[in-house]
Amino acid sequence: FAEVVGGLVFNEPRIPIVSNLTGGLVESYSPEYWVRHVREAVRFADGIETLHGLGVTTFVEVGPGGVLSGMAQGCLEDIVTVPVLRAERPERSALVTALAQLHTWGVPVDWEVFFAGARRTGLPTYAFQHERYWVESPEPVAAVVDPVEAEFWETVEREDLAALAQTLDVDAGDTFGEVVPRLSAWRRQRRDRSAVDGWRYGITWKPVADTASNERGGEGIWLVPVSAGRLGDDWVTACLRALTERGLTTLPVPVEPATDRADLAARLADAAADESVAGVLSLLAVDAEAAPAAAGLTVGVALTVLLVQALGDADIDAPLWCATRNAVGVDPADDVAEPYQCQIWGLGRVAALEHAARWGGLVDLPGTVDERVAGRLAAVLGQSAEDQIAIRAHGVFARRLTRLPADRGDGSWSPRGTVLVTGGTGALGGHVARWLAGAGAEHLVLTSRRGPDAPGAAGLKAELEQAGVRVTVAACDVADRAALAALLDEHPVNAVVHAAGTAEAGMLAETGIGDFAATVGAKALGAAHLHELLGERELDAFVLFSSIAGVWGGGGQAAYSAANAFLDGLAQHRRARGLAATSIAWGPWAEGGMVADTGDEERLRRRGLTALRPDRALRALHGALSGGDGTLTVADVDWARFVVPFTLGRPSPLLGDLPEVADALARQPAEHAGERTAEPSALKERLAALPGDERRRLLVDTVRAHAAAVLGHSGPGAVEPDLAFRDLGFDSLTAVELRNLLTADTGLTLPATLVFDHPTPEAIARHLDAELAGDARVDEISVFSELDRLESVISTATAAEETVRSGVRRRLQELLALVNSAQEQPAESAESRRQLQDATVDDIFDLIDQDLEIS
User: Fold this and answer.
1) Do residues 519 and 597 share a domain?
2) How open is the CA angle 273-510-426, to the nearest 5 degrees?
3) pTM, 2 dp
4) Of 231, 281, 389, 569, whose CB has the highest number of CB atoms within 10 Å?
């Protein structure tokens, strides 16, 4: 293409050009040249040899992929080929990598242009560096053969022309020039398909040792929160009897549906006041009535959210187990009768990450709790090896993530008639709509809350209509059942893709029940309404866009995880009744997905999650529909990078059977592995024997070591003691992981917002020092903690106008003068310290505004 453009614009080439027509240098262009160029063979190999003969040994490919680089390497052996762009990598990363490769091969790179405005900085010699960054030679591994590709080459070796022609979709009369492009296209498709096949995961249930027992005992009581309206339920009564008959002391805690967090915390604290609490078994989940203060949630789900929060408020550290009834399907014949209880499982997976020290697990029971089930329940509560368990009459099963076989669907599924896409004007919905339009849909109904007024809706509609598809863009909140019913009456559908939803993040301990309900409702209510309104209607597809957050959880995503776990359960519920349903738990999407919108794509890649290219993700969707998959996970995960930080605070049996996970954990350094099982008393004993300065130094080193482990660094040297955690790349999940490690080491009850309240390793060390020392230094540490918080807030003013910065400086100077005059004015200084301790962020800025006389 560049050659054609060059010939059209210039009569004579300005720089030497090698022709793909002749394989030699171009002397001139003419109309006859371009006619031959279209008709005759491409002499790519001859062109490469010509360049090599002229002394060219380095080839840079400027294009959308690395196809030509690979072809050039097949022509000559002693050349270097560097593609500037790679289809599977972000453009910025690919370009910088290409420049670095060229630099290492001795090609001059004008770095002063690349790093415009930068200056040279002297670095210490390598001999004083103790961490190697050189790439080690990889260990040889056995080649993985794509079975479809192997079958293709066997066909070639058999010289089976009929089978080969069918594979490549060629006719006997096609010329070699027509076959080669189709062969190239087939190879690219196989490469994409092979990548997608590696993203397919599913949930299986692994039988574990049956530890049913009729005799159990133990010290302390088990608190058993139960919805007050279900206290006399036969299933609840059977669960309570199962524990008491096996020697466990139980104390039912009836909870009214309209209770709030403070009331529940007070009740739990009263129940535990005079007793040692061995554990908490929640039976709240089975109350399926609508929650009075949380639209879209059941009483069971709403009260479980409050229970997790209230246990922390009441300082009850005993392990919490949440029981559900018929909420998971162990095998295809095991019906998910109550999919709303699946939300408890999504919520629990996040609670396990955010509150690892006081989380027990999830256990699903059958509708009837007989003697055998009762014995198994009592045994499960006494073990810690598994935390996601289903008990059935025929055994005990543990939840596992496993790889699914490669997609072997025939690709036969195609849309017809009218297809509804909820969230259809958003980025994901737009990708799906374009794919449906190209696959044969006749009419697309795209919904969103704003409908035609949504950004980009008009352009998307015009684009789809230009492709020959009838398009209706409707403003409809699918969480509004009446509005959705009216839309379905107006537009009878043949298939549904539910891609609507929101992913508002927030730590579980700080999430109000109203916010939790809003996030769950945005995705779960729409799916429930679609299921109810379409009833037994025969559909070509009922596709639910779920998320990996619902499969293994994610810090700060309790509500989102609950919503997506419901979608997976709803799909199983529908399929058990012979209805169409496919739920795909997606990893992050590139090119406009929620991750791209929030700018987290690069951060997630560093954590081991690579955003999915939309074309490949849609290939996975097509394969799932063609192959009849019910629920599956599609994610591009670098498990070696992902699993170590993910399991620092708590092991994950769910992921443990994946070979890559087992290998990564086996290679984990001993110092990191020891962090999981550190006894709080060990650190306390070491601190108790040290003077003040050494105590602080040990705490700082401990925080740095844990922070380095969470971030995946090789040692604490990568974490500066006075560098803000936000500058180190901490997010909500890594913040929780660090908090969990410090909780395990110190035995302290630390908030999930620890790294935000105390924004540097030094600040956290001071806070831990004060907490471990008791009340003697509370006043001192409170001032330092508030100064740390003040430092974090003031850092946001660095880009503000000079008037604001001037006001900040003046106010801080006044505070410094106040501290310096403490001996002359002790009362005033003490009062100022109290004011500083009690000041909120808003108070601090109000003081600045007063100084600046800003209203």
Assistant:
1) yes
2) 150
3) 0.71
4) 569
- What the block records as the tokens of 540 is 């070509």
Residues 449 and 553 in one domain: yes
**Rounded-to-integer distance, Cα 833 and Cα 818, Å:** 10
Token pair 């909420």: residue: 327
Q: Please indicate, yes or no, whether residues 221 and 99 belong to a single structural domain of this protein.
A: no
**Overall average pLDDT of the 548-573 stretch:** 94
Which whole-number Å values give the CA distances from 358 to 209, 216, 277, 345, in the listed order?
25, 22, 12, 16
Residue 566's contacts (CB-CB under 8 Å, 6 or more residues apart) are 339, 340, 342, 343, 346, 520, 523, 524, 527, 528, 550
SS3 of 267-278 = HHHHHCCCCCEE
Q: Which structural domain range is residue 157 located in?
A: 147-197
Mean pLDDT of 509-535: 93
Q: What percent of the chain has pLDDT over 90?
A: 41
pLDDT, tens digit, 9 for 90 and up, residues 581-609: 999 999 999 887 665 555 577 778 888 89
Q: Which residues pair with 243 in a beta bridge?
A: none
At 364, which helix (H) or strand (E)?
A: strand 359-365
Q: Indicate whether 307 and 387 sit together in one domain.
A: yes
For residues 807 and 813, give the distance between their C-alpha atoms in angstroms, rounded to a whole number.
Answer: 10
pLDDT band at 200 (very low <50, low <70, confident <90, very high): very high
Burial 268-279 (b: 16+ CB within 10 A, else e): beebbeeeebbb
Please count the other Cβ atoms lying within 10 Å of the Cβ belonging to residue 611.
Answer: 21
Lowest mean pLDDT among 382-391, 424-433, 561-570: 382-391
Q: Are 764 and 788 in contact (CB under 8 A)?
A: no
Give the residue ranges of DSSP H helices in 12-110. 31-39, 44-53, 67-75, 91-104
- CATH code, 771: 1.10.1200.10
Question: Would the CA dihedral through 534, 564, 655, 143 be positive or negative?
Answer: positive
pLDDT in tens, 681-734: 577 778 877 887 888 888 998 899 888 887 777 678 788 888 888 888 787 667
Structure token digits, residue 711: 């971030």
Write b or e for each residue in 732-762: b if 16 or more Cβ atoms lie within 10 A of its Cβ, otherwise e.
bbbbbbbbbbbbbbbbbebebebbbbbbbbb
Q: Return the number of other C-beta atoms located less than 10 Å from residue 798's C-beta.
A: 8
Alpha carbons 560 and 518: distance in angstroms, whole number? 10
- In 306-332, which positions are buried (b, 16+ CB within 10 angstroms) versus exposed (e)? bbbbbbbbbebebbbbbbbbbbbbbee
- In 175-313, DSSP assigns E strands to 200-208, 221-227, 249-255, 277-282
**Are residues 570 and 535 both part of a single domain?**
yes
User: Which H or E run includes 81?
Assistant: strand 80-83
Residue 630, pLDDT > 50, answer yes
Helix (H) or strand (E) run with residue 154 in it: helix 147-158
Partners of 470 in the beta sheet? 443
> At residue 95, what is the residue type?
L
C-alpha closest to that of 796 among 726, 745, 732: 726
Report the pLDDT averaged over residues 349-367.
93
Question: Distance (Å, rounded) from C-alpha 91 to C-alpha 85?
Answer: 6
Identify the burial level of 107 via C-beta atoms within 10 angstroms of its C-beta, where 0-12 means exposed, 13-18 middle and 19 or more buried. middle
Q: How confident is residue 89, by pLDDT bands cut at 50, 70 and 90?
A: confident
pLDDT at residue 855 in the model: 43
309 with 424, same domain: the answer is no
Residue 127 in any domain: the answer is no
Here the CATH number for the domain that contains residue 241 is 3.40.50.11460
Check whether residue 680 and residue 818 sit in a common domain: yes
**315 & 239 share domain:** yes
d(CA 294, CA 494): 33
Instruction: Specify the 3-state DSSP secondary structure of 420.
Output: strand
Closest CA to 442 of 463, 473, 466, 415: 415
